[in-house]
Design a protein that fits this description.
337 residues, alpha/beta, Nucleotidyltransferase, domain 5, five-stranded mixed sheet, 10 helices, transferase
């Protein structure tokens, strides 16, 4: 690469308003995130209308802060990358329209990025990506195993058939009376308890890398309901530990199997649930069985939604000559491939 590439990334797919400037797809010069967690907590989940309103209020401030922290001007930028989908349509539209306005005003190329591609490419801020590789993407709305032969080439070899892992975490947390978002609270409780309860693991049919967590979630809800009917108390720490053990067992086992079958050089962990301590530890332990495969786990700041990951994925697309035009629209169900 002869000349440096400076990319502004914008991310508003759910409840974080984020902007970042990344140099050469490898170095985050800034990564600003305005979280809305407090606004949504009392509703027990993200309220789309409230999310959109917060994005409108925050987007300009967040972009200005990202540019200032990076010490660059719009004249220094090579392009603007923005999450075009999937996500909440109203939330996505705020980011997409902000990016289009900036691209038009400053004569910059516009690049639409897939949100999950962003999560995978967050790992490039940690180390160089080595192909072929396998990415385990685990978030509130997605649970996928993605095989990559080269940059920008995504093959989804396994996905959730019902609830995503993060969604199951939030529903079980709510049943246990834990605050939103439930994932970190379940993870914390799980470390205080023991997985003594016999909960199901959905392996599905032979050779499938798909996931299913709705049966596990139902089993937890039924166990809690039946105990309440009998006037018994279930220790939330034991339930959290048992639930987490079931989720992690399936995720880690299928990832290791796929890594072996596809002969990958690297396994990347990506998405919000990648911040889970139990999952990180179990994956590190399991991957010792495959010493020739490098495991890459991003820092917590790059697991949850952020714009640096969008800028990295945007840089790859930019270098491949891919551009969007000003007709770019938000697509809440944008396919990865």
């Amino acid at each position: 690469m002869n000349e440096d590439v400076y990319m502004l990334g914008i991310e508003t797919s759910c409840d974080e308003t984020a902007a970042a400037v990344v140099k050469n797809g490898r170095e985050a010069l800034s990564n600003v995130v305005a979280s809305q967690m407090e606004s949504h907590r009392r509703f027990g989940g993200v309220v789309p209308e409230i999310a959109s309103r917060h994005h409108v209020e925050q987007i300009t401030l967040v972009i200005e802060e990202a540019m200032q922290q990076a010490g660059v001007s719009f004249a220094d930028l090579d392009a603007v990358a923005v999450t075009a989908g999937p996500g909440l349509v109203g939330a996505l539209l705020v980011g997409v329209n902000a990016a289009k306005a900036l691209a038009f005003a400053h004569g910059l190329p516009l690049i639409g990025v897939h949100h999950i591609a962003g999560h995978i490419y967050a790992n490039q801020l940690v180390t160089e990506m080595k192909f072929p590789l396998l990415a385990l993407v685990v978030s509130g709305g997605h649970t996928e195993l993605v095989f990559m032969k080269e940059h920008g080439n995504f093959v989804v070899i396994g996905e959730t058939r019902d609830d995503a892992a993060g969604e199951a975490y939030d529903k079980v947390a709510r049943a246990l009376g834990l605050p939103y978002p439930g994932g970190p609270h379940i993870d914390r409780l799980a470390h205080e308890g023991e997985p003594v309860m016999d909960l199901p693991r959905a392996w599905l049919e032979e050779g499938s890398y798909d996931f299913s967590f709705s049966g596990l979630k139902s089993a937890v809800l039924n166990a809690l309901h039946n105990a309440k009917q009998r006037g018994e108390e279930i220790d939330p720490r034991q339930m959290a530990a048992s639930f987490q053990a079931s989720v992690i067992d399936v995720l880690v086992t299928k990832t290791a199997q796929a890594a072996k079958e596809y002969g990958v050089r690297q396994v990347l962990l990506a998405g919000g649930v990648a911040a889970n301590r139990g999952l990180r530890a179990a994956l590190q332990e399991k991957m010792k069985e495959l010493p020739d495969v490098e495991l890459v786990i991003p820092p917590l700041s790059l697991c949850t939604d952020n714009a640096a990951m969008i800028a990295v994925a945007g840089t790859v697309l930019y270098q491949q000559g891919k551009r969007a035009d000003l007709a770019l629209n938000a697509n809440p169900s944008l396919p990865l491939v």
